[in-house]
Design a protein that fits this description.
The complex is a heterodimer of chains A (357) and B (409).
Chain A lengths: L20 H6 L3 E8 L2 E6 L4 E7 L4 E3 H14 L3 E4 L5 E5 L2 H13 L15 E2 L13 H16 L10 E4 L13 E6 L5 E2 L1 H7 L2 H6 L6 E4 L4 E4 L9 H5 L3 E2 L7 E6 L14 E8 L6 H17 L6 H8 L1 H8 L14 H4 L10
Parallel strand pairs in A: 7-8, 8-9
Antiparallel strand pairs in A: 1-2, 2-3, 3-6, 5-6, 9-14, 10-13, 11-12, 14-15
Helix pairs in contact in A: 4-8
Chain B lengths: L6 H4 L9 H9 L3 H16 L19 E2 L17 E4 L6 E3 H14 L3 E3 L7 E4 L6 H10 L15 E2 L13 H11 L1 H5 L9 E4 L8 H4 L2 E7 L3 E3 L1 H9 L4 H6 L7 E3 L4 E3 L9 H5 L4 E3 L3 E7 L13 E7 L6 H17 L6 H8 L1 H7 L22 H17 L5
Parallel strand pairs in B: 6-7, 7-8
Antiparallel strand pairs in B: 1-2, 2-5, 4-5, 8-13, 9-12, 10-11, 13-14
């Protein structure tokens, strides 16, 4: 069968053809919205029109079979229109309140989970992990599944002081906004890479490899026509491995994850913040990473108990002080928590005012 | 088809959260590639290590990106994933779809790929996960003839993405969906033919809530803002109070500039002192509404930790009008790229180049004047450059003062 004629540089289809009629009509003229339940909100237009959104959890990694199931549901209740969110949830949109209850009933019957709106925990931004990435030092989807199974009550409720945004990065490349999340899990290597010197000259560019190192730990090794790595300077970021395949950094016994907290991306009340390291290392324990899950649940619970309404994790910690965060959570404070890379000047305390537990 | 024993990942089919393993197995039922991906993943879980090799150069004719080469080290053991390339389809603005469009996408993908997807990938593309090199041209012909194009990859403009904006949000200060579409169309060449030092991401949010996290993960963050007052509907304020909101604690005391007062009846905002953080508006959306001139703040430089630490985007243009055909904004983008191109070494993001060359060089390069809205605080150290022009300007100002007898600081 002949192939259809290819076209280049056409860009994506125009979004307008995918907007349901009620959105076309009220485009840019929305007045307000209300969260009705953790899985349902309603937007009201200046025209008085109402649009109900039902938000449903997704594992992000979807089979075409499940996408077709989303299509079936959208065709039955939403005129075929639906969307996905920036955090990978599915949203079904209905303009007729009568359809809302039957849509919810059908979603429940099919086993879809509604939630993720408001002061709770919504879907986790994450990376590919072992499913599909060359530089992964853990599996992101497996961690997310394990975490969210345990945190499901927060997806289906709005009982937290504010929303808590979770993220998982399977290496320090951190695809996605992992570094500015309320609680972020980042997988780390902990050992100096090894080099297959015999392949270096055929597969790697010397200046690129030297330039890839943030700590200037790499220097030429003329005898081997390769490079050498200064173990006292190497912080195991893996960037040299990314630019030069004969460098190897994976280590199943030593690769693990770190936990960072207190980041946010919006500007509400306080400026966007990076997440900060609190737990430097937990071993990889597939398939369910029980210690990582327990640590996250513990931090969420301490936050829920202590923060004021509307305070994000980072804002709560800034109010009470980091020493109080460590005493409330009982997390060990370690050398890794003190920045010895680029932010030491800005992150050390420069006053004698602090709390004791 | 080979049946894999998968006791470890089977554990991830249990529990209430939707399971990606179940998804992989659904695809594996009638797809050899997906089936081998399941076996391959079980092996990763068993050995606690990944087996994907570095991407090779694969793609479609005339494009330098849009397909990410992926090969397994275990091609002999799992032939279905020996090649397992990713195809990035450029998503429509706001991730809106019709079922008809997605069914077409699925039909093609089932025929030529693994049947596995990411909806969506981190950058925003609809990611098709796993196909073979010899299927790529066919896949491209099938999709492009149906109106779908590839997104960006490598040292190129990455697929721009945006928040839902005026599609379904009362807070959007400009049309994020339209701007995203317009910039994507304008810069097709920059997306499909990598010509930059490294990746460049543009993300667009309609307000400071920043639902696409542009401030943290876009080399160029375009965040909606406004210049006018916040209009207060006092009847709705009363309704919020009546419905249990503690307005003093939740609104007044949480305002970062302390520009709100409340006497138990009326809410008053000292608009001149408001910094537009959006807290009060998001809590009382029925009562508070921004008015007046709308536009956006342009920030530059954010990125993840590689190489020398994470960056958040820095404000460079505090306010710009964002209206079709977006000529001014497109000009700014072209100037930014030109400066970057002139100054970057390979694999240097724009934020890193600005750190190396200095913000002044960058701002002058794109024709922006210094203005206090760009900074958190002025410099702390006394080491600074004085150009001949700077000195001439200082001297001229003082000569003028001598004439008028009045100081101008």
């Amino acid at each position: 069968m002949a192939l259809p004629q290819r076209k280049t540089d056409i860009g994506p289809p125009h979004y307008k053809q995918f907007l349901p009629p009620i959105i076309q009509k009220n485009y840019g003229k929305w007045k307000y919205h209300e969260v009705i339940t953790p899985g349902v909100m309603v937007h009201v237009g200046d025209s008085g029109d109402k649009l109900w959104t039902v938000r449903v959890a997704s594992p992000r990694l979807l089979s075409t079979a499940t996408i077709r199931e989303h299509c079936d549901i959208a065709e039955k209740f939403c005129g075929g229109f639906f969307r996905y969110t920036t955090r990978n949830n599915v949203e079904f949109l209905v303009s007729d309140e009568k359809q809302l209850e039957s849509l919810k009933k059908e979603l429940t019957a099919r086993g879809f989970k509604m939630g993720g709106i408001g002061a709770g925990i919504t879907n986790v931004v994450h990376t590919q992990g072992w499913v599909h990435c060359h530089s992964a030092c853990t599996d992101a989807s497996g961690l997310v599944k394990s975490m969210m199974d345990e945190l499901m009550e927060y997806f289906e409720s709005t009982r937290l002081p504010a929303k808590v945004r979770l993220a998982v990065a399977c290496c320090v490349n951190m695809c996605g906004a992992v570094h500015c999340s309320d609680i972020a899990v980042v997988a780390v290597h902990t050992k100096v890479p090894t080099i297959a010197h015999e392949n270096f000259k055929n597969m790697c560019e010397l200046p690129t490899v030297i330039g890839s190192c943030p700590t200037r730990a790499i220097s030429p090794d003329p005898a081997n026509k390769s490079v050498k790595i200064n173990a006292e300077k190497c912080m195991y970021c893996g960037n040299c491995f990314t630019v030069c395949p004969p460098i190897s950094i994976k280590d199943p016994d030593r690769d693990g994850v770190a936990i960072l907290v207190g980041g946010k991306i919006n500007s509400l009340r306080s400026n966007p913040k990076f997440s900060k390291l609190v737990i430097p290392y937990i071993s990889n324990e597939p398939p369910r990473w029980p210690k990582v899950v327990a640590a996250i649940k513990h931090i969420v619970e301490v936050y829920a108990k202590n923060a004021r309404k509307h305070e994000r994790v980072g804002e709560w910690i800034e109010r009470i002080g980091w020493e109080r965060f460590f005493s409330l959570t009982g997390i060990d404070f370690t050398f890794q928590c003190i920045d010895d890379f680029t932010f030491m000047r800005d992150t050390m305390r420069t006053s004698s005012t602090f709390k004791w537990s | 088809m080979k049946k894999y024993d998968t006791p470890l990942i089977d554990e991830l089919e249990k529990g209430p959260w939707p399971s990606f393993v179940t998804e992989m197995k659904k695809a594996a039922k009638n797809n050899e590639m997906a089936n081998d991906a399941v076996g391959h993943l079980e092996k990763c879980f068993r050995t606690k290590v990944g087996y994907w090799k570095h991407g090779g150069i694969v793609g479609v004719l005339g494009y330098g990106g849009g397909v990410i080469g992926r090969y397994s080290e275990l091609g002999d053991e799992f032939p279905g994933v020996a090649h397992f390339h990713t195809v990035r389809l450029n998503q429509p603005s706001g991730f809106f779809y019709t079922s008809q469009a997605l069914r077409e996408i699925c039909d093609v993908w089932d025929k030529y790929g693994s049947g596995l997807t990411n909806v969506h990938g981190s950058t925003g593309d609809l990611v098709l996960l796993g196909t073979k090199t010899d299927a790529l041209e066919t896949i491209f012909a099938e999709y492009s003839s149906r109106g779908w194009d590839l997104g960006g990859s490598g040292s190129a403009l990455r697929t721009p993405s945006c928040c839902i904006g005026p599609g379904r949000c009362e807070w959007s200060n400009y049309d994020t969906l339209d701007l995203c579409y317009a910039l994507t169309q304008e810069f097709q060449d920059e997306i499909h033919r990598p010509m930059f030092s490294y990746k460049f991401k543009i993300k667009m949010s309609g307000c400071a809530c920043d639902c696409v996290a542009s401030i943290a993960r876009a080399d160029m963050s375009i965040i909606g803002t406004w210049k006018g007052h916040i209009e207060v509907n006092q009847d709705e304020v009363k309704n919020y109070a009546k419905n249990g909101m503690d307005i003093t604690a939740e609104i007044v005391n949480m305002c970062p500039t302390q520009c709100i007062s409340y006497d138990g009846k009326d809410l008053k905002i000292n608009n001149a002192e408001c910094s537009r953080c959006m807290h009060c508006i998001t809590r009382m959306t029925k009562a508070l509404k921004p008015t007046g001139e709308r536009g956006a703040t342009i920030c530059i430089g954010s990125k993840a930790p590689i190489v020398v630490g994470s960056l958040l985007s820095w404000v460079i243009v505090p306010f710009i009008k964002v209206e079709p055909p977006y000529t001014e904004l497109k000009d700014v983008i072209r100037k930014i790229w030109e400066w970057w191109d002139d100054n970057a070494k390979p694999r240097e993001r724009i934020g890193e180049v600005i750190e190396m060359k200095g913000m002044r060089s960058f701002l002058e390069g794109i024709g922006q004047s210094p203005i206090p809205q760009q900074i958190k605080e002025p410099r702390k150290d006394p080491f600074m450059f004085y150009t001949e022009d700077d000195m001439a300007a200082f001297k001229a100002k003082e000569a003028e003062e001598k004439k008028t007898g009045k100081y101008k600081f």
